Amino acid sequence: MFSINDSFSLALLVEFTLFVGIRRFFQLRLAQAQPKSEPQGPASDRLLVLIESIAFFGGVLLYLIAPQTIAWATLPLPLWVRWAGILLGAVSLAGLLWVHTALGKNWSAWLELKEGQTLVTHGPYRRVRHPMYTALYGLYIGWTLLTANWLLGAAWIVTFTLLTATRIRHEEAMMIERFGEVYREYMKKTGRFLPKS
Ligand code: SAH
């Protein structure tokens, strides 16, 4: 079924499987730890999560199963750039693992505040407020280079940008409402996606 005819399809399959594995592992741990709570933030946030997920899974499946259908959007990238994309994907996955470990039970796919939610300011959160989004951007940029396909790149990066552009405002407002001055102070010391220079 899969056309694993080159190293790049194989690399994408491995990195995709690792991504799903990391997410599943933390989702299962979370499900054991606490009952579900209500999502917060606007309904448009959940809609954008859905659209982003379709672009995410759809893009990967298309590249693995029917790459010829999107071959017209191929970018003429040198091989070494595509290998650099595999490396960026791997580094981003390691980053995602680090972020999930630090965030622990405070993680959720939606915006929500759980009972007993704590403000995490250690590990990757010490200097960056949204390191998970940084790791996902890294993954999408890596996969764009790996697949050398601008259509996939646009689908991943544009949908994720639409999601984060509106979400971060709501997320930070939600955190200020819960943690007040402590979060405001934390904002002064941290950068949004990258450490503050
Ligand atoms: N924006 C963060 C977290 C993404 S998961 C990142 O990119 O790393 C989304 C959930 O994380 C939100 O529902 C929010 O409740 C929680 N969250 C965000 N920042 C947090 C922090 N510093 N400490 C604890 N929980 C946080």
Topology:
Elements: H1 7-33, H2 43-65, H3 79-103, H4 131-147, H5 150-179, H6 181-189
Helix pairs in contact: 1-3, 2-5, 3-4, 4-5, 5-6
This protein binds S-adenosyl-L-homocysteine.
**Helix/strand order:** HHHHHH
What class, by secondary structure content?
mainly alpha
The small-molecule ligands in this entry are:
S-adenosyl-L-homocysteine
Fraction of residues in helices?
55-70%
For the termini, the CA-CA separation is 48 Å
Q: Please summarize the sheet with the most strands.
A: none
Contiguous low-pLDDT stretches (5 residues minimum) are: none
Radius of gyration equals: 18 Å
Count of helical segments?
Answer: 6
What's the overall geometry? globular
- How many strands in all? 0
The fraction of residues assigned to DSSP E strands is: under 5%
**Average predicted confidence as pLDDT:** 93
Structure notes:
The structure is a single chain. The chain has 197 residues and is an all-alpha fold. 66% of the residues lie in helices and 0% in strands. The model has no long low-confidence stretch (mean pLDDT 93).
Kindly list the characteristics that best describe this protein.
197 residues, 66% helix, mainly alpha, globular, binds S-adenosyl-L-homocysteine
Summarize it:
By secondary structure, the chain is an all-alpha fold. The chain has helices at residues 7-33, 43-65, 79-103, 131-147, 150-179, 181-189.
